[in-house]
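Hi R.,

Here's the chain you asked about this morning:
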Amino acid sequence: MSRCLAGHAIDHVVLERGEVANTWRTERWDSLRLLTPNWQSRLPGFGYSGHDPDGYRTVPEVIDFIEEYARASSAPVETHTRVTLVRSIGSGYVVRTNRGDWQCRAVVLASGACNVPRLPAFATLVPRSIATLTAQQYRNPDRLADGGVLVVGASASGLQIAHEIQRSGRPVTLSVGEHIRVPRVYRGKDIQWWLDAAGVLDERYDEVDDVARARRVPSFQLAGTPDRSTLDLNALTEIGVTLTGRLAGIASGKAQFAGSLHNMCALSDLKMGRLLDTIDVWARDNGLDRTVDPPTRLPPTRVEDSPPLHMDLSTGRVKTIIWATGYRADYSWLELPILDRKAMVRHDGGVVALAGIYLMGTQFMRRRKSSLIDGAGDDARDLSAHLASYLAGRTSKVACKVA
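And here is the predicted structure, written out as tokens:
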């Protein structure tokens, strides 16, 4: 967004609570790799220039990439500047920080959608003898106590963490709720290549029937590995991970799991099949059938006949619970009438009803790819154009319909 604002000659500043790429420095586990291939890190005036376009960046490589972009774009970043309050003042806004106040006519909220781990209310009922961590706090298996581990959540983070811990010799139980299963490579190309080429990632928020539902869809079960292997529930059961249904509650020291595991897995397989059918149709219609591998399908997710419905947490077999249950945004520092009943910013494709306020970087904000590095550029181009018109007094409309 800073790069695009500079392109409109708009004087601005970027306030960062820590260092550039702060969350990548402080909130990622050691072995994590970016889930999108290197070629897909496309930003305005910047992109991947290495020799491994189909690889997946490690955490240090992601930090270097973001730092390099900040330097290349001469972004006016004020580091170690924590925003504590934003409120209206006159025809603009005052932004209070630990380093003083700023006054401005417009504010872009780019603080991300993953500020606070989203934990179930019963998380407080875990016995004190069991250590609990969020995916944000987890670093590597060596920091865990010896013994069993319960990983709650089976999207990308939960799968990768469960896989790594099981391979360390600690027995893992994975609690599985709603999830989206996809192959890492399909018909010889990365699944992200297909989603990009077929235009799936460019689908707009105003082109879907239920954007609220689309914004709640879990992330893909994906891992970025050197061998480009598919990590799914079958891969986990093959190495000994035990699958259970969604963790429904904890009572008297016992974990209670929903009996919906079969249904969840069958529904995920069905959705995967529909997505791959869409890709096959696009490949056929665009003359790619003879240039790529033939269509294949992964075998159905294997689930035992009677998955466990209970787990006694008082026996000492489970030493650690890792919550990979997602995140929510933290807008507690906003003193503006723009939040809904769930404390989320109300917006129309990133344009907030309060004039001069914009949103960036949330799930399906303007396009399906809005939460990806690759989606930031297109969203920023749209919103910076709207913001420039607002500052010039040329628009009072809330909707931003720039293509």
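One quick note: The CA atoms of residues 108 and 262 lie 43 Å apart.

Cheers,
M.
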